[in-house]
Sequence to fold (418 residues):
Amino acid sequence: MRVVVTGQVGIDKAPFIEAVRTLARQRGQDLVVCNVGQMMYAEAPDVPPGRILNLPINRLNTLRRSVFKEILRIADQHDHVLVNTHATFRWHHGLFAAFDFDHIRQFNADLYVTVLDHVENVHARLLRDHDVEHTLKDIMVWREEELLATEILAEFARGFGHFFILSRGRADASAVALDRLMFQAELKKVYLSFPMTHVMDQPAALAEIESFKDAMAQHFICFDPADLDESSFYIRAQQAMRDRQPRFDYPTATGDVSIATQEVVEIARDIMGQTYARDFKMVDQSDMIVSIIPELPGGKPALSSGVERELQHAYEGGKEVYVVWHCKTAASPFITQTATAIFPTVDAALAHFRQKGYITADTAAPAPPTTASPCSISNFQSPIPPAPSPAKPASAARVKRAAKPTAARKSPTSLFES
Fold:
């Protein structure tokens, strides 16, 4: 299994990738991580930390090619290799590619994954770790460029079905998803659909949604739209505008950061547009969509327009569409006419999936403890499933690679590890 993981500057993919490697080791897989950035700095000891992108473009390209040749050598000696890199850079040289097509062809990755994070988190890390002027608008543009470039690269190298989007909103949950994409590719890929804004002030509904997500995460590869939800960031900026505050403090992954109110207002369309497009892409990368509609006080279904659009998009894309309608009132025709099946409870849905063979003893995982997350839509946090028992590697690769003799393998050094 060979994987390329990309993400814009400021994502800080290292903790996420380390979690993936830990999960792989727990299932008995030797996953070697090659961090292109660290390897380039090792090749250029004269370059201060955080300044490598200031090098002349010719030297930068030469360093990258030298490093990737070493990665190709390493990949020939190990069964499972993950490359931590970027697809693009937008720096003093302008926008430029961070890869070479000939090396990408030779590496022949099975999966291409772009990791995303909240705009305020990326902004905070750029302030802390990098000497580059930027605006929140720049970050939103860089995100789309990185995502699109990686998707095009995956289509060029392997065709449809090898590109995935994951978010660092809940890093452990996303690490489980990537681990399963790599080593349990036979599991169904599920887009989790549920109301968000409609239930932000409804603790009972939020708890029901989190319980639903926990149940799905025990058996499937799950993609959760709440892992990257920037609506609260924009809502806070709107409040600052009403209060005539030119700046406001906002919590990020590195601590509170002072944010210019007008900058957030200027990216409102980007936040909404990217949310719309990103959620549909995650539906497209799934085998099926499973939605839960809880009941609000008074008996009204917590059915949002976003959930309806996701269900319709999945139906029109040929996906299996399942709905847990946990309400006393009957579901509308806009739900019944697009759903493959509708269930009154999550347990009923799980029973159906077992009957269809989507859930077996091999896919089940014990329920993990619940942890809180500042990026969650509520104070309730989806439980993160632990790594499943060691299982045979999935046959996700279309091109079989011969297993190397154990004696010929070399142990990775810290140079190649993220």
Observations:
- The first strand starts at residue 2 and ends at 6.
- The longest helix spans residues 136-157.
